Amino acid sequence: MTIADRNELRQPAYGEAHGLPWLIAELRDHLWPWAGKGQPARKAIQGAGFALAIAATLAWVMAALGRLEAGAIIGWWFGWSVFEVLVRLDAKPYVKEGPWWGRLYRRATVMDMICYVSFKNLLIGAVLFIALKTAGVLIV
């Protein structure tokens, strides 16, 4: 999706999809910060991003195995969030306008993106922490 004007509202790249295709497109859009084929090739950023994504995933796996404390996981998650803001500003510089179930997007400011990524990752992190705590593998 190309967004030309800061105030111009756009439809999502997946168009008018409904049901399962819509849900899959939404999940991919929120969980995968890179734009894909439409994103300019910035190999250094992409390489660092994949390395950081693998490191953050390994941190969660180590936490699930009981080999990493909560503070270390929070540190990794924060580092990933900072990096994700930078990647999304480059690859997907848009946020939803209106309710979360809406289909209108607008160009994101830096603060929009910080708030979006922070809240999204806070929710994901909370779900992962609760799952690990419930499973009894995370000692807080």
SSE arrangement:
Elements: H1 19-31, H2 43-64, H3 70-91, E1 94-96, E2 105-107, H4 110-135
Antiparallel strand pairs: 1-2
Oligomer: single chain
Tell me, rounded to a whole number, the average pLDDT.
Answer: 78
Helix-strand topology string: HHHEEH
Please state the overall shape, judged from the principal axes of the Cα atoms.
globular
Helix content: 55-70%
Per DSSP, what share of the residues sits in E-state strands of 2 or more residues?
under 5%
Distance between the termini: 42 Å
Low-confidence sequence ranges: none
What integer value in Å does the Rg equal? 17 Å
Counted up, domains total 1
Class based on secondary structure composition and strand pairing = mainly alpha
Give the count of helical stretches: 4
Largest sheet strand order = 1-2
Beta strand count = 2
